[in-house]
Amino acid sequence: MERFAGLLQQLPRSKGELLRALHLAQEQLGWVSKDAIRLIGRHLRMTDAEVYGAATFYAEFRHSPPPKTLVTWCSGPSCRVVGGDRLRRILEVELGCQLGENGPDDEWGMWLGQCNGTCERAPMIWVNGRVVGPLTMVETVKLARRIRAGEDVVEWPQRPIKIAPATFVDAEAVYGGDEHGEGAG
Ligand code: FES
Fold it and tell me: Ligand 1 centre from 132 Cα, in Å?
């Protein structure tokens, strides 16, 4: 918190710096805590409610401590067009938590991410900040089970290829959904 407070002081005291300040909190603390909201408000001369309003408007800001294993699901168009929504459904079932939630005891959690510019690895997730992909549906199931088992997935193989649409067929039998991948909310 001390380091965050110090870096915050370096930002200009203008409301226009609000998003930068929130990103700074998440980078430094892993989440946007109530204490961080108070500090930001004081520095930018805004009320806590104003800061809280912005922090809760944008889905990428977390309001609870990050899980031990943070799975970030890419919501970008390149990932979604090659099966990203199916990946999300599989992860929600296998990890037992919805997007934007932590699992039991905060051991793992799945949170929203935006395109990070490595679309050639779509469809992908990040595990503790590391890109894992492209993932087939079957690999996604295995990966989720390894995360649940507390295994290190850093060494997960990376293949610079895109998955074939045929890969989706088996996953549909298990997880359901329509043929365009829009079936789950
Ligand atoms: S859309 Fe997922 S990395 Fe670009």
Answer: 12
CA dihedral 125→129→133→139, nearest 10 degrees, is: -70
Domain parsing of the chain, residue ranges: 2-57, 69-175
Whether pTM exceeds 0.90: no
Alpha helices in the chain (DSSP H): 2-9, 18-29, 34-44, 48-57, 77-81, 84-95, 137-148, 168-175
Q: What's the token pair of residue 113?
A: 């991410």
Tell me how far the alpha carbon of residue 181 lies from the centroid of ligand 1, in angstroms: 17
Amino acid making up residue 9: Q
> Which of 60, 115, 130 has most ligand 1 atoms within 8 Å of its beta carbon, as the pocket-test mutant?
115
For ligand 1, the distance from its centroid to the CA atom of residue 171, given in whole angstroms, is 21
Backbone angles phi, psi at 134, to 5 degrees: -70, 145
Residue 39 burial (CB count, 10 A): 19
User: Which fold would CATH assign to domain 69-175?
Assistant: Glutaredoxin (3.40.30)
Look at residues 75, 76, 78, 65 and name the one whose alpha carbon lies nearest to residue 112. 75
Residue-wise pLDDT for 38-68, tens only, equals 999 999 999 999 999 999 998 778 888 888 8
